[in-house]
Specification:
Helix content: 10-25%
Low-confidence stretches: 18-22, 27-51
Order of helices and strands: HHEEEEEHEEEEEE
Keywords: Signal
Strand content: 25-35%
Radius of gyration: 27 Å
CATH class of the largest domain: Mainly Beta
CATH architecture of the largest domain: Sandwich
Organism: Paracoccus subflavus
CATH topology of the largest domain: Immunoglobulin-like
Number of strands: 11
Number of domains: 2
Protein name: MSP domain-containing protein
Distance between the termini: 64 Å
Oligomer: single chain
Largest sheet: 6 strands, mixed
Number of helices: 3
Mean pLDDT: 78
CATH superfamily of the largest domain: Cupredoxins -  blue copper proteins
Shape: elongated
């Protein structure tokens, strides 16, 4: 008898959230006009006539409408000017200004004149890396500290800027301003 009561209490407790979800009304937009309300009433009558009981659909309305694919859609991606790794050449032509939440892609080109790397743990922790593509091989890392090129090649990094601040990717052991790329995330 005790087990039966326990099972009934558990089932009653589990059914409460389901009943609350079924009874919840969708959030109303304060800017709805009377015409919109009357159109909604007409739609309800048509559904009732068809005999089908349609479930309520709740849409998450965000600040931005990124479309079906969201922030990662190609339409939302910004291609940045490439970085260059070459002996005696500047890494970047200027500073990069990024917006937090923006989707970016940047190519890192090495000419093979010297074994060079780009290091910047702070920058890589301030972004979310979608992928790094090297010779048509896609890498989806959990974290990156640096990229090193032993030979000529290109690596393309696609990422979402997250944490606002000023960050640098620099050639390890160098001290010149031209031997780094500065990124400001707003």
């Amino acid at each position: 008898m005790f087990r039966l009561l326990t099972v009934l209490m558990i089932l009653a407790g589990l059914s409460v959230p389901v009943a609350a979800q079924d009874a919840a009304a969708p959030p109303q937009d304060n800017a709805a006009t009377e015409a919109d309300v009357s159109e909604d009433d007409d739609d309800d009558e048509e559904q009732d006539e068809g005999g089908g009981d349609a479930a309520a659909v709740y849409e998450a309305a965000g600040k931005f409408d990124y479309g079906f694919s969201g922030i990662m859609a190609r339409d939302n991606r910004t291609d940045l000017a490439p970085l260059t790794l070459a002996s005696g050449q500047p890494v970047a032509g200027g500073e990069y200004t990024l917006k937090s939440g923006g989707f970016y892609r940047i190519a890192v080109n090495a000419d093979g004149s010297q074994e060079l790397a780009l290091s910047g743990g702070d920058f890589f922790r301030a972004i979310w890396i979608n992928e790094i593509v090297i010779n048509d091989i896609e890498i989806r890392p959990m974290g990156v500290h640096s990229l090193e090129f032993d030979n000529a090649g290109t690596a393309v990094i696609s990422f979402v800027a997250i944490t606002p601040g000023r960050y640098a990717l620099s050639i390890p052991g160098s001290s010149g301003e031209t031997q780094q790329a500065v990124f400001t995330i707003q």
